[in-house]
Amino acid sequence: MNFDLLEKLCKFCAISGNEDELRDFIFYEVGKYSSDIKIDCLGNLLIRKGGTSGLPEAKRVVVTAHMDEVGFIITHITEEGFLKFGTVGSISEKVLLGTRVIIGKNKITGVIGATPVHLLDSEDRYKNVSVEDMYIDIGAKNKEDALNYVQLGEYASFEPVFFKDDMTVKAKSLDNRLGCFILLNLIQKEFPGDVYFAFTTKEEVGAIGAQTMAYSLKPDISIVVDSTTAADVYGSKEDQKICKLGGGAVVPFMDKGTIYNKDLYNLAFDLAAKNNIPAQTKEAIAGGTDASVIHKSRCGVKTLGISVPCRYIHAPVGMCRTRDVLSTIELIEILLTEVFKSFT
What pTM was computed for the model? Predict the structure, then answer.
């Protein structure tokens, strides 16, 4: 498996609403395997990969992953030249202080800061610092100097990092470059019927791209590919771990946005068992994906979620196991073949 492609994906800065550069890269990659490619008005990338049977389309199957990542947007520049910002998507303030970020089209490097601890009153020194009290420091002399490099409304991303060893990947934006990586591997394979691949926008701010994608493509069956929170870390009780690194592909029965189709859920685990593919479910009702809007589009869509377990989601660096990525690809490939044979 060529994880160099995942590294390229993770190093793009593609905050929700700013997916253009990443989409252009993915457009080039999928163009090697399909010529039926469209970009809709919200920036979703929609691809049809023709099936091998040559028969008319009996059921429409869509596999989807969102392109965007969480990040920041510049809202104000102080007279001293510090950049005030808001978060785009859900990010805990606990992971921010001292973090390096990349800002705007000029790729300016900044550091997230706040009032130094020695200047705080004693009662404030051990309190969490809110995003409203933070700023990004690019080293500007003043506001006029800062405006030479950064404009209001520009996006900022966690600094791109990527490390891979024999067991793990540790990188920025594994949520959801893992999903994009999996789709780019699946589109190289052959299936009996036509498969539609959708790379969606703005998932982190409300599954906006997926909503219009589903209305446009009118799927009968949808498989939503994402990364999902693994809380198998020090201090977590067994019933709080949700899912575990090394446990294989994660197939949830429910999350905070979707109750997944039971027949697809059972089929996924049956296929995993028959083919010795590691798979697990989420042992909590937590998180949400593009499935939350896809499953209720038009007259309804039979929807399944399949994710890669990932620690430290929505933080500067996440972690996943390479074997879990491979298990997820293997399971979806077999599942896509099976749905054309037996699923109605």
Answer: 0.95
